[in-house]
Amino acid sequence: MGDDADPTDIRSLALSAADAVDAYAYTQENPGEAVLRVTPPFHGRMRARIHVYRRDDTELTGAVHVDPATVIEDEVVADYPSLETALEDADSDATERLRKRHAEAVEEWRSRARESIVDAVALGTDDGPHPVEVKRVG
Known about the structure:
Elements: E1 12-16, H1 17-29, E2 33-38, E3 45-53, H2 58-61, E4 64-66, H3 74-78, H4 83-88, H5 92-114, E5 120-125, E6 128-137
Pfam families: DUF8009
Protein name: DUF8009 domain-containing protein
Organism: Natronorubrum halalkaliphilum
């Protein structure tokens, strides 16, 4: 790849708070993984978009994957409601009520998380972490 494939050229990531929150929640609730993806050619300001995958293709594409948990404040990430934990102790009659409460808790968490996007993040590069600013769009 040419010079335009160097992620250390990136100074800031423009991202949608909704994309970051959706990517994090998707990975918690589904098989596969959702990330914020940045693809070459790289330049100073890049747009990170939600990307869902089952197989990491960054070696082939040169893309940079940003874990959505890194762009949401740590304490908000830690507060993500766990359906599995709630269901472990529930009987079958309570299961549907728990699923409904969980869905409501996730919606509340999403609202809080959209307001909790960090100002900077470190991108993983071959040369180690590369700090960039985070700019919200949308």
